UniProtKB/TrEMBL annotation:
The keyword Ribosomal protein does not apply. The chain crosses the membrane at residues 6-23, 35-51, 103-121, 133-154, 222-246. It comes from Ganoderma boninense. This is Extracellular lipase (EC). It is an enzyme of class 3 (hydrolase). InterPro entries: YTP1_C. GO terms for molecular function: triacylglycerol lipase activity. Residues 101-246 form the Protein YTP1-like C-terminal domain. The gene is Q6WER3. The lineage of its organism: Eukaryota, Fungi, Dikarya, Basidiomycota, Agaricomycotina. Keywords: Hydrolase, Membrane, Transmembrane, Transmembrane helix.
Length: 294
C-alpha cells in the first residue's frame, strides 16, 4: 500500500508538470481516473480480505504475514469495511466526475483512509506513533487535494471546444491556464503529491521488523519520522527533476522554447522596459532652417 501511495503521488506530479495537455485531450477529469483506480483497488483488497486463508496466501505468498497473522474479529471487520468503502466511494466518484467534472470523492476516501490508519493501536508505542503520523499525513494530503480541486486547480476543458478562453480571438488569455509557470497556485499544487509520497514512505517504514529494530536501537519516534520525511524530500526532488528533464529534453526540447511569431503577447516587465540597443545606433536626422535648394 505504501508503494501505491508513492505511485499515486508520482502520477499526480506528472499530471501537474507535464500531463495537463493530455488531460485536456482525453476529455476526462483527473478525478475520473482516480475514482476508477480507487474502485478497482477496493475490489481487489476486498476480495483478498474475504478470501483470507488458503486461496489468497497460496496465490500471493507475500500476504501470508498479513492474512494469516493473529487478529480478532473486530480488526477483520475494520479491514473489510474499509475496503468496501473504497469500492463504494470509487463508484460514486466515477458517477460524479462524468462529463469532465471535478469531484472531491477520491480526496475524501484518502482522508477516511488516513483517519482509519491513525487510530490503529499497535503492540509498540513507537509503531503507534508512526502509524498515527502516517494517518495524519494522509489526511492532510486529502484535505490539500480538496482545496486544490475547489479553489486552485484550473478547469480541464477540451482543446476542441471553442470557448472564450480557448479561441483565436483571445490574446494571451489561456497561456497562464495551460502553462501555469508563473501562477502562484502552482506552488500549492505540489503539496498533495508530496504528502502522498511522504505518507507512502511512512507506511512502508512502519513494518514490525523495522520498528522492532529501531526500538531496540533506542531511537525515538521523532527522530525516525524526521528521517523518513528527509527521504521523502529527496525522493520528491528526484521525481520532479526527472519530470522536468523529460519536458525539456529529446522531442520535447522544441516545445520548451517560446514562440515569438504568434499573436500571443509577451508579459512586460513590471517596472520598466530597457531601450533596445538597435534604436540607440540609429543615425540622427538633421533639419536645416531656411530655403531648400532646388
Amino acid at each position: 500500500m505504501g508503494s501505491g501511495f508513492i505511485a499515486y503521488g508520482t502520477i499526480m506530479a506528472i499530471l501537474l508538470l507535464a500531463g495537463e495537455a493530455w488531460v485536456r485531450r482525453s476529455g476526462r477529469s483527473p478525478d475520473w481516473w482516480d475514482s476508477w483506480v480507487i474502485m478497482l483497488w477496493g475490489i481487489g483488497t476486498l476480495l483478498a480480505a474475504l478470501l483470507e486463508g488458503n486461496i489468497c496466501t497460496d496465490f500471493w505468498p507475500v500476504s501470508q504475514h498479513i492474512y494469516r497473522a493473529p487478529r480478532n474479529a473486530l480488526v477483520r471487520q475494520g479491514h473489510a469495511t474499509h475496503n468496501f468503502g473504497r469500492w463504494a466511494g470509487g463508484i460514486l466518484g466515477i458517477f460524479l466526475s462524468r462529463n469532465n467534472q471535478r469531484s472531491i470523492v477520491p480526496a475524501l476516501i484518502i482522508i477516511l483512509t488516513g483517519w482509519a490508519m491513525s487510530d490503529h493501536a499497535q503492540a509498540l508505542m513507537l509503531s503507534t506513533k508512526v502509524h498515527a503520523l502516517f494517518g495524519y499525513t494522509l489526511m492532510s494530503a486529502g484535505l490539500a487535494r480538496i482545496i486544490e480541486i475547489c479553489f486552485v486547480a484550473p478547469k480541464y476543458t477540451q482543446d476542441g471546444v471553442d470557448s472564450d478562453t480557448h479561441s483565436e480571438r483571445t490574446v494571451d488569455a489561456s497561456r497562464e491556464d495551460i502553462n501555469g509557470v508563473t501562477s502562484p497556485s502552482r506552488a500549492f499544487r505540489h503539496l498533495p503529491p508530496f504528502l502522498l509520497v511522504a505518507s507512502g514512505l511512512l507506511f512502508m517504514s512502519a513494518t514490525d521488523e523495522e520498528l522492532h529494530f529501531v526500538n531496540d536501537e533506542g531511537m525515538d519516534h521523532v527522530t525516525y519520522i524526521l528521517i523518513m520525511f528527509s527521504i521523502a524530500f529527496l525522493m520528491y526532488s528526484l521525481i520532479v527533476s526527472l519530470i522536468h528533464l523529460y519536458s525539456i529534453s529529446g522531442r520535447n526540447a522544441s516545445g520548451s522554447v517560446p514562440e515569438n511569431g504568434t499573436i500571443e503577447l509577451t508579459a512586460a516587465n513590471k517596472w520598466y522596459s530597457p531601450v533596445p540597443a538597435a534604436e540607440l545606433e540609429v543615425e540622427p536626422i538633421h533639419h536645416v532652417i531656411g530655403d531648400e535648394d532646388d
